[in-house]
Amino acid sequence: MSVQRRLLPNISALAAFEAVARLGSFTAAAQELDLTQGAVSRQIRLLEDQFSRRLFERDSRNVRLSTAGEIYADAVRSALGQLRDAALGLMSNRHSGMLNLAILPTFGTRWLMPMIPDFVESNPDITINFVTRVGRFDFARERLDAAIHYGLPDWPEADSTLLVRETVAPVVSPEFLAGRAIAAPADIGRLPLLHMATRPGAWTEWFEHQGLSAPTGPGMQFEQFGTAAQACMAGLGVALLPLILIAGELQRGQLVPAPGQPMQSRSAYYLVVPHDKRGHPPVASFRDWLLNHLAR
Fold first, then answer.
1. Cβ-contact 146, 283 below 8 angstroms
2. Beta strand pairing status for 193-196 and 263-274?
3. So where does this one cross the membrane (predicted)?
4. Quick check: helix, strand or coil at residue 162?
5. pTM of the model
6. pLDDT (tens digit, 9 = 90+) per residue, 28-83?
């Protein structure tokens, strides 16, 4: 057997190996693959003979991955996932491509989604799959092509293109403001403050921007800006929110500014593209469209 052939196992054997590794059972894997247990066992033996490595440890009751099997299982799972994605792309969109895009929950919903119909109309041959991700992740492991990310332009092995900077300001509901004496930024420190889990130092930075010491008391914490905005509208406290994400609430009068100067955040929103996806046509089309849309 040539070296190239030896390094390219039979796809049926890989599917059987992945199923047994995931399910921990030859019987369950056989049921899932619509094969006999003997057929699954033969596929596993084929792999073990091909690599001269034991992939599973077997006893009378259990089957578990060997050390070599655990390492190989991660790679096989990723490779089979990429093959499935490629097949789905061919079947769903034969003439162009697919863009797997990670977005931030509130920013994606409130800022990006209203623009997407224009992209779909301009690029009918590109299908976008959206997933929600907060923070950094492994593009290759997640099988994603690009991400809308909040932070600094320092994602390793990736290009970061600035989309929009962020200005934050304290806001309250009109009823909350009317029922309390809030005349200056210092008054805000005596009120319930709503905190974002992803921005733990935001209030401290804002108070320092006003020349004040930040209060140290506890406050409600939220994971998403949309939830924090709802809590603020319900009168639960003062929220420090990006103005770009609450433009509708401000326009409708559901939220109003509290005293104090808005502050530009040190971080911003970027389109992040890993280096190995620079030449992926759907990524290039999306980046060009997004920048042109922002320029207009």
1. yes
2. unpaired
3. none
4. strand
5. 0.65
6. 899 989 999 999 999 999 999 988 889 999 876 778 999 999 999 989 988 888 88
